[in-house]
Every structure is written in C-alpha cells, then in structure tokens.
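Why does residue order matter? Because the sequence determines the fold. Keep that principle in mind as you read this record.
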Amino acid sequence: MSFPRYPKYKDSGVEWLGKVPEHWRTMQLRFLLLDGKDGIRIGPFGSSIKIEHLVSEGIKVYGQENVIYRDFEAGDRRITEGHFCELSEYEIRGGDVLVTMAGTAGRCQAVPDRVEKGIIDSHLVRMRFPTEGVHAPFIPHLIESAAYVVAQIQVAWRGTTMQGLNSTIIKHLAIAIPGLDEQRAIFSFLDRETAKIDALIAEQQRLIELLQEKRQAVISHAVTKGLNPDAPMKNSGIEWLGEVPEHWDVMPVKYLVASIEQGWSPQCDGFPVQDESEWGVLKVGCVNGGVFNPQENKSLPPELSPIPKLGIASGDLLVSRANTRDLVGSAAVADRDYPRLLLCDKVYRLRLDRHRCSPTFLSLFLASRAAREPIELGATGASASMVNIGQSVILNLIAGVPPVAEQCAVVQHVADMLTRLSALETEAHHAVAVLQERRSALISAAVTGQIDIRNYTSEGAAA
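Structure:
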C-alpha cells in the first residue's frame, strides 16, 4: 500500500525530524501540556506507597504493566480511601497519557474514558493536555515512534548513566504536530491499519503456538507409542504412560543409568568463556529447549582451580535439577567433548548403559508428556521461580524402552519431524518480525508527516 506525501514541507529545525508538512507546528512537548503541576506529574516516590499500605480492597494503584500490556484492568495493588486522599494529586482520569520510566522506558498509553479510580506509582509519568488543542490518543503514537523515543532519548542519555526516562526528558521532546482534526484523522487511520496488522501478527503467533504443541505431540507419541501404528500394545501399568508397544520393556530409568552426579557452582565471573582454551562452569539454562547450548556458561576466575573430571563428554545426558517448574527436568545431550566446560551443581549428569539405552532417546522421553507430569509433581520448593528435583525423581521414572536399534530409528524420525516444524516456526517468527517492522514504520511515517492520509478511505484507497 502506498500513500501520497504532503504538497509542501518545511525544515523542522530538528535534526532527527528533518522536513515536516508546512502547516504543522514544531515545538517541545511541554507547550502542549496543561499549565501548572497538572500538566505533567511523576508518580509518588519514597515512602508514599509501601507494602504495609496495600490492602485487598480499596483504590487501585496503576503501574507500568498497565501501559506495557495496554490493559488497565491488570494488577491488584490497592490502597485505602484515606491514603488515596493523601495522594489524590497522582490520580488518573480518562484522556490522561501515561509513560513508563524504566525497563521498557518510553512505552506510552492513553487512559480510556471509563477507567477505575486510582493513582499512578513511581514508575509512571502522567501527562494532561487541554482538550481543545490535543487529541490525547494521538500522543502515544507520537511518543512511541522511532523519531522521538529512539533518537531523542538516546541523545538525552549521552554522557550520563541514566537508565530511564524522567519528566524533564519528556517535556523537552521536540515534536511536530498538526491541528486537532488532523490528529484525529491520523489516529483513526492508525487505529484501523494497526488493527489489521495486529490481526495478522496474532495469526502467526497462534501458528507458532500450534507448531510448538505439534512438536510436543511428535516427541510424546514417538517415545511412548513407537513408529509402527499397527504394533500390538500392552498396558504399562503406569497411568501417565498408558499403553506401549508389546515388545518394549517397561522399567525405571535407574536400570538404564550407569552413573549420576551433579557438579560444582563456584562464584564465577558474569560472562562466558571467550574460547575453548578457557575454563567455564555451565549454567542451568544450557539444557533449555532440549538442545545442549555450550554458550550458557560462566567463566571460571583464574584464582580458582578447575575440577577436570567435571568436564563434559560427548553423549553425557544433562538434566536440570533446579529451575522454574516448567523448566526443571529439562534434558539435553552433549554433542561432543567440552573438557573445559564443567558441570554445575544445578545440573545432573547421567551416563547410560549404551547397550540398553540411547542418551538422546532418554532425553526425548524426559521431554514427553509421560515424563513431564511426574517430574513437575516431584518438584519441591517454596518459590515458583526455583524448584528442585532429587535424583530419585529422575531415577524412578517409568519408561517404555524399545530395543536400541528401534530407539535410534525413533530418534531419527523425531529429528526429521522437528527439523520441518522448526523451519515452519522460523518462517512464522520472520513473518511476525516483518509485520512488526511494518507497523512501526507506518506509525512513524504517519505521525512525522511523511505520508498524507487526509484523503484515505476506510476501504484502504486514496480518495
């Protein structure tokens, strides 16, 4: 889709804006704000809102999650009516514009007309504009466009240690802005067109989810039912394993394991090794996703002596013993020797009886639904962000074990299927990235006057 440019442009006088439509006004954002303290206000700092001030029922406290996720119903922090009265100067109302200050600094959202009574916290800046000159929903598109946030905020940070926004930076953003009617027209155009792009992005993201579900199904079926749909089946006697091919053995994993150990986690540097001549200690994330990632390591400080016997060897089956509930028990097989990458104490190393079991087959089994349920049930720990599994959780898992030659055929089949699924998922991720770039470019072009949409019709053609 192509759009015309405006008939006449002028130099904005701002390097990163360049030329803007002749009739647009160029100014600092502060000149659009309401006069006085209500124009821009940063959320309350210090002791104004403490944990002891929060109650189960009361007045809502809005934070950056409401802006980032475009959801003003999210969050459950509340304060009493009395505390709200003390902080009422930080109240939000329909038409306000909120900007995040840290982390994902520069995310911006207009407050909807119907919003629950509440105040902002110290991670947000609230702006108010006179209704006769500014269409508030237009402002977030303006601030989030690359010409403003990327260029100007980077300049503001230059030579400083600043890691986020503040009200001074926001007030002094240089902008070019059309009249009120044109602001509304641009907003309506972007509202329609970004909704179309967002729908396409959602389709691709749903496809990615389906491909990931298919990946799980492929693994689970292959390692519990085999490759022959006509093979006679038998009851494994295990609820979450169900039926397995009649000729498969059903046994605890411990009968397949020659040895199991965990490693060492000294205080390491916060960066990985630069080459294979250096000593490093693996991080627990080295097995996430079912593929061994040797880059997930920390460099061993030179003053510490390495333990060579903890070096990784080809065929080692590595299993995380401490992680989030959905990642604990993740497994991967080392593809070759890494003698200077050392096993950490949050990862188990299993060395198998190769005459009975392929490490890759067992790794796939540990990723199957039949194994994930007992692993997650066996995980312990008070924190959802870190749970643990003991050796017995892995060793006592019941697996269906085909002959080694059949295990190898299953491994090859799964590898072939996952390669195809990964290619489709890569295409989908690429499509999402292209659509997101298109969305960002369209917004930037519209709010900086690089395209003229005044005669654009909702059917998508210029009138």
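The longest strand covers residues 54-62.
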